[in-house]
Design goal:
The chain has six helices and seven strands, in the order E-H-E-H-E-E-H-H-E-H-E-E-H. It has 183 residues and is α/β, with parallel strands linked by helices. The protein has one domain: 3-Layer(aba) Sandwich (Rossmann fold), CATH 3.40.50. Strands 1, 2, 3, 4, 5, 6 and 7 form a seven-stranded mixed sheet that branches. Helix 5 (131-143) links the parallel strand 5 and strand 6. The structure holds flavin mononucleotide (FMN). Flavin mononucleotide is lined by residues 9, 11, 14-17, 80-84, 123-126, 128, 158.
């Protein structure tokens, strides 16, 4: 199994990083983590060149993501909740999936994406809902043609109980790792 993880947290040793580490320690197969804060990824500028061809003309680290999507099995979006949403840097990277939306909407093409399963991992300081972040994640998966999406795993109230002390979230991550490791 091959898993692509987009990490939307700015904190190297933060809550999302801990949950990603836990997932990686349990996943079988190959894992590629893209750190959206340090990667060289520009936002989509809606130049619309991808309406005519399956390619993004911006030559940066997203090209590695496009290549990996062609061979991986799972995609995981992992992010802190910022203002009710996934982080700006993760959304910036996700904006570049427009290349696939264009292929689907304007040319009705089959996407060069092998990934079939999607998962969402969220960390949030408070205990409010993270529905908006999850809804957006599902839209992102839709642009990748991924229909098999697991329920979100959320470490809530990290201001009081950080993810490394959140036993429920850790158990959920281990169970997710088992499911993502299956053929
Ligand atoms: C700019 C910003 C916006 C935030 N907005 C929310 C929010 O809307 N809801 C919430 O529960 N926590 C919010 N938080 C708190 C983070 O989600 C929380 O601290 C999270 O555990 C950080 O995860 P990380 O360590 O992986 O970056 C926000 C934090 C920042 C820096």
């Amino acid at each position: 199994m091959k898993t692509l993880i987009l990490n939307g947290s700015p904190r190297k040793n933060g809550d999302t990083a801990f949950l990603i580490e836990t997932l990686c320690s349990q996943l079988t197969g190959e894992v590629k983590v893209i750190d959206c804060y340090s990667a060289n990824i520009s936002p989509c500028t809606d130049c619309r060149s991808c309406r005519g061809q399956l390619a993004c003309c911006i030559d940066d680290d997203m090209q590695k993501v496009y290549s990996y999507l062609a061979e991986c099995d799972n995609v995981v979006l992992a992010s802190p909740v910022h203002y009710g949403e996934m982080s700006a840097m993760l959304l910036k990277a996700a904006s570049r999936f427009q290349v696939y939306s264009s292929a689907l909407i304007f040319r009705h093409e089959k996407l060069p994406i092998s990934a079939k399963r999607g998962a969402v991992i969220l960390s949030q300081g408070g205990s409010g809902g993270a529905e908006m972040a999850y809804d957006t994640a599902r839209l992102v998966f839709q642009s990748l043609g991924i229909k098999d999406i697991f329920p979100a795993i959320c470490s809530k109230a990290t201001d009081t109980i950080p993810a490394d002390r959140d036993e429920k979230a850790q158990a959920d991550i281990i169970s997710l790792a088992n499911r993502l490791s299956q053929e």
